[in-house]
Design a protein that fits this description.
244 residues; alpha+beta; Translation Initiation Factor IF3; Alpha-Beta Plaits; 3 domains; 6-stranded antiparallel β-sheet; 39% strand
């Protein structure tokens, strides 16, 4: 029984000593640093209001002039196809025409002896940029049906943007800064001290990801283009002085 009390007394002494040391360390930290560091978060979800779709038309012909005329005809067919589905002419643009000479290897009795001209290959990219997201999405999904009419066309996945992103960023920085201040106030109140002036504040990089899913953040910031529904977030790290 005496041994039991001895262990109880020793354990209590250890606990009390640890508490005293922790309090002393905390007081020392406040005195030497006098700073509360916090990180605030600003986060919101939004829907993209602009869509950009790119694609390419390809033509092959042994005659350059004929190939050019064929390309012009295919471009008109693409423009007409889109116009008929509600895409404005001003929302469609074509890039520079690229022309290449294609050559084929020549063999004589199984031995390679050189190359001879095969045909011209022409390609021209196009871009659809519009705020009529639903209309362009629907039209672009059908574009490849022109392949069945002899048009060699490829269409890339749509990219989604938000034209008022700067406003979102400014709002989120303000929200993250306010959140950091609220956290600092909470820490100060629970620590029995009074918050003083802001010592420093710095915003982190913006992370714009899909609104759903587990897309990873990037140290340099992320900017999702493949999702129409997006989530934006930013952190603000602030340091506040403690009143003496």
């Amino acid at each position: 029984m005496n041994n039991l009390w001895k262990y109880i007394i020793m354990s209590s002494a250890v606990v009390i000593a640890a508490v005293v040391l922790a309090v002393a360390y905390t007081n020392k930290s406040r005195t030497s640093n006098g700073i509360i560091s916090v990180t605030g978060l600003g986060e919101t979800e939004f829907t993209s209001d602009m869509i950009v779709i790119t694609g390419r038309i390809t033509v092959t012909n042994i005659d350059a002039a004929e190939g050019y005329n064929e390309m012009e005809s295919d471009k008109r067919r693409v423009a007409t196809f889109l116009n008929e589905r509600g895409v404005a002419t001003t929302e469609l643009s074509f890039s520079m025409l690229n022309t290449y000479e294609e050559w084929s290897p020549v063999y004589d009795e199984g031995n390679y002896i050189g190359e001879q001209f095969s045909h011209y290959k022409m390609s021209q990219g196009f871009t659809i940029e519009s705020k009529s997201v639903d209309t362009v999405e629907a039209a672009a999904r059908e574009l490849t049906s022109l392949i069945g009419e002899g048009v060699s066309i490829s269409v890339d996945e749509p990219m989604y943007y938000y034209t008022m992103l700067d406003d979102v960023k400014h709002t989120l920085i303000a929200e993250a800064a306010a959140d950091a201040h609220a956290r600092a106030e909470l820490i100060a109140t629970n620590s029995g001290v009074e918050l003083d002036a802001l010592s420093s504040s710095r915003a982190g990089v913006f992370q714009i990801t899909a609104a759903t899913g587990d897309e990873e953040f990037s140290a340099g910031g992320s900017f999702n283009l493949t999702s129409r529904e997006k989530k934006a977030r930013v952190t603000v790290r602030s340091e506040y002085k403690i009143k003496e």
